[in-house]
Amino acid sequence: MTKKYVLSAFALGLAVLLCGALGLMTIFGKGGNILNPGNNWASPTKYTENPENPLVPRNRTRLIPDQFNAITAPKKLAGTPISNIVVRPDRVDIQSGDRVVFSGAFRALPGFDGRVSLADVANLVARSPNPSLLREVSPGVFQLSAGLVQSPGSRMEVVAPEVTEVRMVSQPYVYMAGVGASVLFKDVKVHSWVPAANEPDTNPANKRPFISYDDGGRLDITGSDLSYMGQDASKAYGVSWGAGTSGQADHTTFEHNLFGAYTGGAVGVTFKNNIFRENSRYGLDPHTDSAGLVVVDNEAYGNNTHGIIFSKSVNHSVVTGNKSHDNGSNGIMMDEKCDYNTIKNNQTWGNRGDGIVLQGSSHNVVEANTVTGNQVGVRVNANNLGPADSNRVRGNQIDGNKLGIQVYGGARDTVTQTNK
Description:
Layout: H1 3-28, H2 69-72, E1 83-87, E2 91-96, E3 99-105, H3 118-125, E4 134-138, E5 141-144, E6 147-150, E7 155-159, E8 165-169, E9 175-179, E10 182-186, E11 189-193, E12 210-214, E13 218-222, E14 225-227, E15 239-241, E16 246-250, E17 253-255, E18 261-264, E19 270-272, E20 275-277, E21 284-287, E22 294-296, E23 299-301, E24 308-311, E25 318-320, E26 323-325, E27 332-335, E28 342-344, E29 347-349, E30 356-359, E31 365-367, E32 370-372, E33 376-381, E34 392-394, E35 397-399, E36 403-408, E37 415-417
Parallel strand pairs: 1-6, 5-8, 6-9, 7-10, 8-11, 9-12, 10-13, 11-14, 12-15, 13-16, 14-17, 15-18, 16-19, 17-20, 18-21, 19-22, 20-23, 22-25, 23-26, 24-27, 25-28, 26-29, 27-30, 28-31, 29-32, 30-33, 31-34, 32-35, 33-36, 34-37
Antiparallel strand pairs: 1-2, 2-3, 4-5
């Protein structure tokens, strides 16, 4: 063997080692706390299941008729005892089944200024044969015991000091909903209610009331508390922005709901400076085909599963400045083809699952986050629901997790850089 051959073989071996090391850097990132710190490691989570809001098994059902049918398909209500208060731009109709049993015009109200409030709706209901469907039980406190549905083009305000609390009686077909309509909740409490117990319905397995707006409307909530709501039916999980619906929630607490808040096909909704805590399943759950969401400066904790989870093609959205900690599963998660999202400057810690997860999702950027005390700091994996291609994990502080960065399951072109 010549000296030249030995040197060439040595150079080739060294190149292979360097390439292997570079490959590991590409997969795992620099200083990503890859190794298990010990068999006795345990996540320092403070998460405990709240006895008042237990994790109930999924029992997905279809609400038939649904919360929108008083507007979209009233014939589906024919022959049923279901009552709906239908808020139209100029009047209130009360429907029993598919029949209108009362109609009252807003202009008939003394001093009506053209701005429709929940109190105005209650004043018209008081003139009907069914005044108990919506009534003011004490100053500023309103009790709803039927469905309330806004029709296209209507706008309603639920605003303090005129309205300070809305109690929705916990029984089937009680909700606040809208189709192509707009509503504003400001500085109010909205929750389920059990009149016999004089308190909210704390059992998430019950068919509790909910808020649900759909079909291009707008749902805005500010400075409010929305709690003890939701059932496991489509867009009935607690507070829901549906197809084509936009709006904003800010400085609001979503707590003890089945899901804290949910979007399905919503566009451009902003969630800013809210708290999502102790919900039976998810804190914030943007879902199927929602896009252009802005999730900024929120806190999610004590939820029984994920703090913040995008699932099923929630794309082109921003998740920044949030704190997600002490949840029963993952802190922040992109699941099932949630692509082209930016997850930046968040803090996730003490979750019983992982800190930040990209599962079956591609072209996402995970940058400048602080991820500590979770099972896995940042996890990237493909699965049978979607690929995980071209994700970027860079400039994150990843420390004190059982595993720093984990890439597996056929994930491709995952690049990590300058993680500590």
